[in-house]
Amino acid sequence: MQNTDPLKPGYNFDAHLVAGLTPIIEGDELDFRIERPNGMKGYIINFTSKGEGSIFSGENEFKVRAGDILLFPPSAAHLYQRSADSASWFHRWVYFRPRAFWNDWLTWPTEVNGVYVTQGLPLSVTQPLEELFIDIEYTAKSDLPYRNDLSINLLEQLLIRCKTVQPDVVTKPIDPRVIEAMNYMTQNLNQDFTLEDVAAHACLSPSRLGHLFRDEMKMTITQWRDDQRISRAKQLLVTTHYSVNHIGRIVGYSDPLYFSRVFKRKAGVSPKLYREQIT
Ligand code: FCB
Fold first, then answer.
1. What range does the domain containing 72 cover?
2. What's 177's DSSP letter?
3. 272 and 206 co-located in one domain
4. Per-residue pLDDT tens for 55-84?
5. Atom of ligand 1 nearest to the CA of 95
6. Residue 147 is assigned to a structural domain of this protein
7. Are residues 159 and 22 in the same domain?
8. Ligand 1: centre distance to CA 93 (Å)
9. Residues 200 and 119 occupy one common structural domain
10. Beta strands 115-118 and 69-72: pairing type?
11. What atom of ligand 1 comes closest to residue 46's alpha carbon?
12. CA 29 – ligand 1 centroid, Å
């Protein structure tokens, strides 16, 4: 007879989503090595809630502890068990067949023997992730209408969140002094401010601000300011009947010829043509 318990060997994972918690305690009936050397039909995402697990053996062996997350693509071998150094290993997991557009979320930069690994995240990140695991399991096992769609939706959220905490995706917050400089410029877009004015506002020397700005924003202050001016000008060209020269002045270019030149360089067409094409 077929096994109906996904925690025991022989269960047929023939579904789009199965979620569970495997509470392994030393000497208990679940205290065995999970062995699927040829992988599974679907993916598994695995979260350690407590204790320690041991993944693979020999030179590929590594340990997982609370908050660590593993992602097993279908071809990855499942060879894991409670670590001999720990009296328990509780792990939550979701088995799933991904949708095609999830592909980008399903690769992480660190990989061991075909398994993606995320370790060392702070509790403030792992706690909400664990809650998602719980929510997915609860929803999938509920009798809520649309429970499949709901649990898949939660799984999408989990996968996206796991992707966004990967070191190659995490975006570093912008330096507050650069933000200060940008705020000053957007508030004074129509003024003829100088680099010295902006720098004084950000409490930095002009050259220090210039370097910092370029490091953080990958463009110069003048390029950034012109981008803002031109995007504001585009907006005014299509939403008002102001003359081109007037719009130039509103966004900070007192010289109409210079305004036209910068506009054309950034937008590819003159302000007049831009207005005609859009309106
Ligand atoms: C359970 C295991 C769990 C996971 C699921 C798919 O039996 O305990 O780690 O592999 O199967």
1. 17-164
2. H
3. no
4. 999 999 999 999 999 999 999 999 999 999
5. 6
6. yes
7. yes
8. 7
9. no
10. antiparallel
11. 9
12. 14
